[in-house]
């Protein structure tokens, strides 16, 4: 029995919601395979990773809160 036949036989015994999960997973694997074949074109969002990263260490929660308060104050004055 081939793997496809085993999978088909197993899926027939599953409830509908689990069949949908298997289908979602199979589509994910297919998309992953297709994306590994086709290179991601430059200019996509993946090429922008880290663009908004601040130089130096990350700000503390208090600093972020103060910056956001200042931003809102300036925006609504």
Structure description:
61% of the residues lie in helices and 0% in strands. It is an all-alpha fold and 77 residues long. The chain is elongated, with a radius of gyration of 24 Å. The N and C termini lie far apart (72 Å). The mean pLDDT is 84.
Rg from alpha-carbon coordinates: 24 Å
* Class from secondary-structure proportions: mainly alpha
Give the SSE string.
Answer: HHH
Unreliable stretches (pLDDT < 50, length at least 5) are none
Average pLDDT, all residues:
84
Strand content: under 5%
N-C termini distance: 72 Å
Number of β-strand runs: 0
- Major beta sheet, specifics? none
State the share of residues found in helices, binned by percent.
55-70%
Count of individual helical segments: 3
Brief account:
The chain is built from three helices and no strands. The protein has 77 residues and is mostly helical.
Give the topology.
Layout: H1 3-12, H2 16-37, H3 61-75
List keywords for this structure.
77 residues, 61% helix, mainly alpha, 3 helices
